[in-house]
Structures are given as structure tokens and as C-alpha cells.
Amino acid sequence: MASIPGGVDGINSATTTVVTSGAAAPSAGQVLTATGPNAASWQNGGASGFVLFKYIAGYLIFNDNTTPNTILDIMPGVAADSTTSVYITNTVTFKKTTGGSWVAGSGNSGFGVGVTLMVNTWYHVYAIINNGNFDVYFDTSNSGANAPPGTTAFRYIGSIFTDGSSNIRPFTQFGQKFIWTNEILNLSGGVATTPTPVVVGTPLGFITYPILQLTFANGGVLFDNVKIFPGGNDPSTTSRFDIVIVNPTTNAFEIGGLQSATNSLSQVDYAVFLGSGSMTSITIETLGYVNINVAAVT
What are the DSSP calls for 54-72, one per residue? Predict the structure, then answer.
């Protein structure tokens, strides 16, 4: 029995939406299409066929080993496009640079129409079929609105963030989990006592699950606590929180690996609640995030 790349076996049955035949393995830019309830074939950019909803395997992204600041590497993969109409496939590691406007082919520039390199900016990475060929481009739009001319299919596969020098901030991807090489400082000296939004280091435009590190400054008091609320939480209540940390000591301390949820503005809410005194401050840093919008399978 033939398999869709990535290890998902089709079932040769007219009662399912996944079928296989003796289809050969795909090459770059090809999609799986079907001409009948029990037949499938690989065609380059062909008509839509039996496509698994939101399917994706591979397409992990990472900083290039040689030129990590300006080149992104994209591993081989296969994914249903954004409309679940075709599969977008690639069989070799692909490279795209932040050097300018999109140019077809691996190793060339990757910005979509009207998109330019800026500091401290999120860029979303899309696998595409362009003029029948596989490619990748970068967009500030979370809906692929600035795709290069000739793009007939696209799929979001991850995001990158530039630092204050316009370099791609280094990270490591593990499936849906993205871990920053160096944590991102989001709030220093926070003292708000009612739920207050703070932007964390997660992709703008998507709801994600940030992995946070909290540091209590030395307030010299016991039992003060801080709560983290999902972004966009109703500020009229303090009961819908994800994280609560009680200060157990009069000394400063730090705790990490805490997970919450953002809104589409990359925000969570935080608040300090007083116990026996007034806490000096709280610091919030992002260690990484879980991006459920990628749904990648390693």
C-alpha cells in the first residue's frame, strides 16, 4: 500500500477520504491528486483531490548553521495547503534569506510583496507552490496576504523574529514547540495590581501558548503573589488565571517553564496581589512558546 509522505497510510476504500494507488513518491512542488474514489497520482500543481485536513509533516525551520542571522533553513516536508485543496511537498532542505524581495529558488531573498526587513518584527514563514514549483516566502500577514505573484497555494509553517539589529533571533524547533536560544525580556519592574496586558515573545497575529519565566524582586515580604491570565481575559474577574505564584521568602527568586495563552496581539495579562506587604516588582521573560497553528509532526 502506498503512503502519503510523513507516514500516514491511505485506506483503499470508497468510504474514506484518503485513498492510495501505486503512486510514485513526489518531487518538489508536486501535490497528491485523485481521479476516482480508489485512485491517486502525483501531479505538479494539479487539481485538488483527497487532502487530509490541516495535514503537515516535516517543514521544521531553523537558523542556518553558517549564516544564522540572515538565512533560514526549511527542512523537507509535505503539508495540506491553507484551503485543504492540495499538498505542498519538498524533498530537500530549502534556504531563504532576509536580503530583500522574494526571488524564486533556494538561497534567494524571501520577503513577500511590500514586505521589508525591519528591527523587532515578526515574519511568518509560508511554504508555497509558485508557478508550479515549491518555494518559501516571509510575510508580516498572518493570512498570507502578501504572497509573491504566481502563488497558487500556501501553508503557514512557522514564524521568525528579528532583533534590534534586524538579525533572525536564534531558536530551536521541536514539533510545535519553539525555544529561544536567549530568553526575551517582556516586562521589568511590573507592579500592576489589576490584570494588565503585557506583550510576550510569541508570533504576532496568532493565539499561542507562551512558556514564561517569572522573577520576583526582593520585596522583603511574605505571601505576595502574581497571577498570569490568558491574553484578552475579562479584567473584571481575577478567577480565570493560568498561573499563580506565591512569594514564599523575603528574598528574590525565579521560576520558569510556566505556560499560559496569548491573544492574537501576543499578550497575556498579569497582576500582583499583596499579602503581608508591598512587593517591589515582577519581571516576565519568554523562554519559548507552543505554536498550535503549525501543528508540525517531527
Answer: T-EEE--EEE-SSSTTTEE
Do β-strands 267-273 and 196-199 pair in parallel, antiparallel, or remain unpaired?
A: antiparallel
Domain span holding position 151: 3-169
> 220 and 109: one domain?
no
9 and 88 assigned to the same domain? yes
Dist CA 249 CA 243 (whole Å): 18
Of how many residues is the chain composed? 298
Q: Collect all residues with Cβ–Cβ distance below 8 Å to 178 and sequence separation of at least 6.
A: 158, 171, 172, 288, 289, 290, 291
How many CA atoms, within 13 angstroms, populate the side-chain half-sphere of residue 122?
A: 17
Digit-coded pLDDT (tens) for 98-154 = 999 999 999 999 999 999 999 999 999 999 999 999 999 999 999 999 999 999 999
* Domain presence at residue 34: yes
Q: Reduced to 3 states, what is the DSSP secondary structure of residue 6?
A: coil
- Residue 57's pLDDT is 92
Phi, psi of 256 (to 5 degrees): -130, 180
User: Which phi and psi angles does 174 have, rounded to 5°?
Assistant: -125, 90
User: Using one digit for the tens of pLDDT, what is the confidence trace for 53-76?
Assistant: 889 999 999 999 999 999 999 999
Radius of gyration over every alpha carbon of the chain, rounded to an integer in angstroms: 22
- Please indicate, yes or no, whether residues 251 and 187 belong to a single structural domain of this protein: yes
DSSP 209-274: EEEEEEEE---S-SS-EEEEE-TT--TT-SS--SEEEE--SSS-EEEEEEE----TTSEEEEEEE-
Residue 245, beta-bridge partner list: 226
Give the list of residues 6+ apart from residue 116 with CB closer than 8 angstroms, or none: none
CA–CA dist 216, 122 (Å, integer): 29
Q: What is the pLDDT of residue 48?
A: 43
The one-character DSSP state at 22 is S
What is the value of pTM for the model shown? 0.79
